[in-house]
Design brief:
single chain, mainly beta, four-stranded antiparallel β-sheet
Length: about 120
C-alpha cells in the first residue's frame, strides 16, 4: 500500500508531503484539513479546527534482512487536547486521544515549537 499525505488550506490550496516537500516546510497558518490517500484513492480526511496544530510523524523500524515496517502518526493538538491517528503499512488505522508511552509505536513524539 502506498500512502500520501496532504495539508489542505482554507483558501483551497493543497500541499502534498514528498521527498522535496517535508512536514517541517508546511505553512502552518490556515490548514483546515489533512488528507490521506491510499494508492491514489481517498482514504481519510481529518478536519482541523481553527487554532489546532497539526502533528505528523513517520516512524520506521528496520530489522536486518526484513522490509522496513512503517507507522504514520498524524493528528491535531489544541489547548492541551489532542486526537491522534496511527496508520500502519498493513492498513490498520487506530484512532486515539492520548499517547501510550508503553507502546513501541504510540509513544509521544518530541513536539516541535509549531505543534505546541
Amino acid at each position: 500500500m502506498n500512502y500520501t499525505f496532504s495539508a489542505i488550506y482554507k483558501d483551497g490550496n493543497k500541499v502534498t508531503l514528498s521527498e522535496s516537500v517535508g512536514y517541517d516546510s508546511l505553512r502552518r497558518d490556515g490548514i483546515s484539513a489533512f488528507e490521506v490517500q491510499k494508492d491514489n484513492e481517498p482514504f481519510m480526511l481529518m478536519k482541523i479546527d481553527e487554532g489546532a496544530k497539526l502533528i505528523y510523524r513517520k516512524r520506521v523500524e528496520q530489522v536486518q534482512g526484513a522490509e522496513p515496517f512503517v507507522v504514520y502518526l498524524f493528528g491535531w493538538r489544541k489547548n492541551g487536547e489532542q486526537s491522534i491517528n496511527y496508520l500502519s503499512q498493513d492498513g490498520r488505522l487506530i484512532q486515539g486521544g492520548q499517547f501510550d508511552e508503553q507502546d513501541p509505536w504510540m509513544y509521544s513524539p518530541k513536539l516541535r515549537e509549531y505543534e505546541v
